[in-house]
Each structure stands twice: as C-alpha cells, then as structure tokens.
UniProtKB/TrEMBL annotation:
<keyword id="KW-1133">Transmembrane helix</keyword>
<keyword id="KW-0472">Membrane</keyword>
<protein>
    <recommendedName>
        <fullName>Arrestin-like N-terminal domain-containing protein</fullName>
    </recommendedName>
</protein>
<keyword id="KW-0812">Transmembrane</keyword>
<feature type="transmembrane region" description="Helical">
    <location>
        <begin position="6"/>
        <end position="31"/>
    </location>
</feature>
Amino acid sequence: GSIGFTIFISIFVLIGIAIIFGFFHAVLAAFNPKLTITLFSDFICIGDEVSFSWEFKGSASRISRFTLTLTGTEAASYRRGTDTITDTHNFYQAEITEQTNSAFMQRGQGRITIPEETMHTFKSSNNEIMWVLKAHCDIPKWPDTKNDYTISIHPLQEGRF
C-alpha cells in the first residue's frame, strides 16, 4: 500500500523537478549573448564562395568556444505500415570557423565555399535537401547556445563561371 503510493508520488515529484530545472535552464539561456550572422549574397549557388560576418549582442567574453559549421542534410520520408518514417543523413559537414580567443569572439568575418560536387536545396513531398549553418557557443557554468540558420543553395548557373 504505502510503498506503491510512495513510488506513485515519486514519479510526479521527479517530473516536477525536471520541469522546474527546464524552466530555470530556459531563463538562464535567455541571458546568453545573441548571435547575428550576415551572408553577403542574396543568391548562393553550388560552387560559390560567400563572405559572411557574425556579431554577438551582449557579453561574448563569457563564451569559451564558438564554432560555425556548414551542414548539408538529406531527409527522406516513407511509409512503413501506418507509420511515416523520416531518415536523415548529413552528406556534407565542414567547420567554417572556430574561435577560442575572446578578443576575436564579439565579431568577425569569414568565407564559406559551397562545394561543387553536392546537391542544391531541394524539397518535394517525400525528400528534402537542406543546408544549415550551425552555430554553437560553449559558455562555462551556463547553458550553451545552439542556433541553426537555414540557407538556400541554388543549382549551378550556366555562364556564371
């Protein structure tokens, strides 16, 4: 009797603690520096090299490591019985920048090269090719930040090169 009740109540206590922890984690993360990434091209094609810049609003000096990664992902959805399954596969991943020196963290710039031997952005009812810039900031003793910025990559254009 009382052991069953204790186990029953313990489950709800643990769920409550997890919700409270999640709330405080979200509140702390709201005070993290905010990242803005600017690409200096409105139309990016396979094979293009694009300049970009980043800037943090807030105290970037708290960040111990900042990485920016370009990822190309393929997603395929299919039916298995009555369930819809989506498989994803990263077909391209390259670290664009990594900063560990806080003097260079607040703002910076770089270049991204979209490889020629890959696929452009594509979406159909069951398949999708996505290109995403993934930003990750390690902040000691504080919730890290992870931001994804979807970018549109167009097919190689005839006569551009």
